[in-house]
Amino acid sequence: MKQKLLIGVVLVLALLAGLYLSVNIAPPASAQHANLYPQPRALPDFTLVDQDGENFGEERFRDHWTLVFTGYTYCPDICPTTLAELKSIYPQLQQIDSQYPVQVMLLSVDPNRDKPERLKEYINFFNPEFIAATAEHTELFPFVRALGMMYAMADSTDNPDYLVDHSASVVIINPQAQVIGRFTPTLMPGEMAVVNPQHILKDMPVIVNQAP
């Protein structure tokens, strides 16, 4: 009787241990926060100009995971906040995939004011390893749309302090230069609508591990 009781206790403890490990240690089976597309989306041909004045094409996305945020350097709120959040998690992002490192990119939707020199000074304030790039609107608009994002001039550009409306999501591009989804802002009453960096940290390892 005692032996059967002991075996029963051991089985119960093993079951409880398994449940604990599955909840607290094992990674989730799928991304919990990212909005992933059913199929990766190829990008159209494009040529941007980065903060060093160099051409930026599809090859710069290959062999990296890339988190792309659309914004501009004169943005008063969402842009600096999002970049600061990405800066805060960047060291952890670098530990996710040694073969295809994660890179962070600001895609400026204000090419009139955001020339390479301005982009470089701005992005270096957050992290010199970050990328900043832009292009003329004829090149930029279809590229932004291909990312699943939008932007529009909120004011006349005759006003030197004009604002630009733009998407606040963070787009995910895989090492094959395909758009696979995005992280959308967390909407909380009374708070700025920005992407939660902890959502990125939680989901990116899952997304990378499940990549073909």
Automatic annotation (TrEMBL):
Cu cation binds at C75, C79, H166. InterPro entries: SCO1/SenC, Thioredoxin-like_sf, Thioredoxin_domain. It holds the Pfam family SCO1-SenC. GO terms for molecular function: metal ion binding. Keywords: Copper, Disulfide bond, Metal-binding. It comes from the Bacteria. SUPFAM superfamilies: Thioredoxin-like. Residues 37-209 form the Thioredoxin domain. The keyword Metal-binding applies. Transmembrane segments: none annotated. Disulfide bonds join C75-C79. Belongs to the SCO1/2 family. This is Electron transporter SenC. It comes from Lacimicrobium alkaliphilum.
